[in-house]
Amino acid sequence: MTETKLYIIRHGKTMFNTIGRTQGWSDTPLTAEGELVIQQLGAGLKTIPFKEAYSSDSGRAMQTARIILQEHLQGESIPYRTDKRIREWCFGSLDGGYDGELWGVVPRILAFKNYDEMMSETISYKNLADAIIKADTSNWAEPYEKIKERVWSGFEDMAHYREKDGGGNIMVVSHGLTISFLLSLIDNDLPMQIGLENGSVTTLTYKDGSFTIEDVNDLHYIADGKKELEEKNLL
């Protein structure tokens, strides 16, 4: 049986990413720079034989997936679908606000002076989810157990069904905190990976119900694709 491998990509840079606003379940499109980087990523991934492709149902993730598939040598024949379970966390009333609002109030709820002090300590994703619920005035933010169930089942189902069908590579476009949280569910000793870059690739292998982390926040596919496109005068 062929190895089952997930290439999990953080979506391209968006308008809100650029001006420092929290997106969560709110959405903005990729910027021109964001589209260019994802085009380069697509060129770097174009020869990997993906059996299927997924993205969350957020517009920025779907836009990212489509650009990558347009660059892929077999892009038109790769089955692609969306899955709302791999959306970003919902920040409730803090969605759409400036990052300073979210990362200003959450550390104080957790008894830290500021974001930097919070991140210098070991806090759990449950602590983070509980603090977001306390900060949310709309009652939209999800409790920890609900986030855990949807994120794990979303990624595990993709891997499980691919393994049952003979294995192979899966392309998945998701979101920074969601990917970071998934990594913690696989290895609870990992620090929070909130700083995942737009367009970065995190690779996991899957076998008999267990994930293994192979690489995190890999940017070499972007660099390789950029070099190829420049050599062909396509940039």
Walkthrough of the structure:
This protein is of the alpha/beta class and 235 residues long. It has two domains: 4-90 and 142-231, Rossmann fold; 93-141, no CATH class. It is built from nine helices and six strands. The chain has helices spanning 15-19, 32-45, 59-71, 99-109, 115-120, 125-135, 144-164, 176-186, 220-231, and strands at 4-10, 50-55, 80-82, 168-174, 201-207, 210-218. Strand 5 (201-207) and strand 6 form a beta hairpin. Helix 2 (32-45) packs across helix 3 (59-71), helix 2 (32-45) packs across helix 9 and helix 4 packs across helix 6. The mean pLDDT is 95.
Give a short summary of the structure.
This protein has 235 residues and is of the alpha/beta class.
